[in-house]
UniProtKB/TrEMBL annotation:
This is Energy-coupling factor transporter transmembrane protein EcfT. Keywords: Membrane, Transmembrane, Transmembrane helix. It comes from the Bacteria. It comes from Arthrobacter gallicola. It is a multi-pass membrane protein.
Length: 216
């Protein structure tokens, strides 16, 4: 599995109780679990949340996917835990790193058990009441869809560049890794913009240009 799929995950079709559960229920469970875990900042609460996460993955028949994000996240978690050990002790390090992993695992289970179109439709439906304040749910859904599509590409691009730099003995050369990633990201953004423009999707407030430059 590539790094980009390890962190974000991709929908896995199955007929489990977790897959069949309504999107609203699963989304609410993820939000409540994450908020309570982070707000409590307590080892017993985090341990209970971890047990619930394991049970949910087991119910979805996705236990093999539970620790997959560690393949991407472990360097960041090690840095965070190291800083916490130095500044606040071992217990704080375990709590902080553990809570991050719990929240990521909970959100990832939602992605693994809900098809992307259904997930996006659910977000658009959630935003629809905000139309009275001038929000555009469809445009928001489009932006979210682009983000969902772009993040795996950018993560994969960074991984490919890092692997290429390592093969050339440049794994410690920041410039050799950063410049290609930036160039690829800009090129991808331009291609995406051109594709949207070709389909007539642009800024809603842009006035149409008519007549010659003198206004005639």
């Amino acid at each position: 599995m590539r790094n980009r799929d390890a962190l974000l995950g991709a929908y896995v079709a199955a007929d489990s109780p977790v897959h069949r559960a309504p999107l609203a229920l699963k989304s609410a469970a993820v939000v409540v679990l994450s908020v309570l875990t982070l707000a409590a900042a307590s080892l017993p609460v985090s341990a209970a949340a971890a047990v619930l996460i394991v049970a949910a993955y087991a119910g979805a028949r996705l236990l093999r996917q539970l620790l997959t994000p560690l393949a991407v996240m472990w360097p960041v978690l090690v840095l965070i835990a190291g800083f916490q050990v130095w500044s606040a002790g071992v217990a704080a390090a375990v709590l902080t790193a553990g809570n991050i992993l719990i929240c990521v695992a909970a959100a990832r289970l939602l992605i693994l058990t809900v098809p992307v179109p259904e997930l996006l439709d659910g977000v658009v439906s959630l935003v629809r009441p905000l139309k009275v304040f001038g929000a555009d749910p469809e445009r928001f859904g489009l932006a979210l869809a682009l983000m969902v599509r772009s993040l795996p590409y950018l993560l994969g691009s960074a991984a490919d560049v890092r692997a290429s730099a390592k093969a050339r003995g440049l794994e410690r050369n920041l410039r050799a890794q950063a410049v290609p990633v930036v160039i690829r990201a800009v090129a991808y953004a331009q291609q995406t913009g051109e594709a949207l423009a070709a389909r007539g999707i642009g800024d809603a407030g842009e006035p149409e240009e008519t007549g010659d430059p003198d206004g005639r």
